[in-house]
């Protein structure tokens, strides 16, 4: 029989202690209060607003990219350090463990950094991978990144063009349309595609209130836009023969 690990034992102990504290607090409630309703209200997590949820996804991706790049650079440095001639092998400080400890100390010193392991570097060296990024762990996603990125870019174009707002209903409808007659049809729901798009590409998507026509008119009325509009209107009148591109005289009176 497999014995539970230390981390599993700590999780079970923490959950059991929190459960005991919750039950003890509920036992002290007034008799007229419902125990189930009180427990549900106490255990419910506060719902985030769309802006807060977007900010959380954006910060999460920035952190993942930052620490992921640091891990890749350390992995490349460790594999390159192991690429040495046979005459240098066996000397002090050239072993896998010494190299990994040195790289972790110099390049992955932050507490949030993922540390290199001896087995990971050793397997990469055995495969002949020197100075390259580590292999991605886990099973690859069945939803291609190009599809979600295209959907995110289309949502930006919808917002900027002013022809439609990036509502959840429209984006889910569009997600269904772009997967029709493709190998991905009926393999993913529209809600799942839109959720993955928001998680993968938060830098494209920015929650905002609906833009009205009056807001667009105010944003357009700038000095440069007015000058450009008058210049294009003048060119159109000259091209159709209704005016001439030369100085004229404005007359207020008629002389005989």
Describe this structure in words.
Among the domains are: 50-126, no CATH class; 145-200. The chain is 58% helix and 0% strand. The chain is built from 10 helices and no strands. Helix 3 crosses helix 4, helix 6 packs across helix 8 (190-200) and helix 7 packs across helix 8. The longest helix has 32 residues, at 50-81. The model has no long low-confidence stretch (mean pLDDT 79).
Helix count, DSSP H or I runs of 4 or more residues: 10
H/E element order: HHHHHHHHHH
Portion of residues within helices: 55-70%
Task: Please state roughly what percent of the residues sit in beta strands, choosing from under 5%, 5-15%, 15-25%, 25-35%, 35-45% or over 45%.
Answer: under 5%
Instruction: Give the helix/strand class.
Output: mainly alpha
Oligomer: single chain
Mean pLDDT: 79
Low-pLDDT runs = none
* Biggest pleated-sheet summary: none
Q: What's the quick description here?
A:
This protein has 256 residues and is mainly α.
Spell out the key features of this protein.
single chain; mainly alpha; 256 residues; extended
Write the layout of secondary structure elements.
Blueprint: H1 6-27, H2 35-43, H3 50-81, H4 96-107, H5 118-126, H6 145-161, H7 168-178, H8 190-200, H9 213-220, H10 223-239
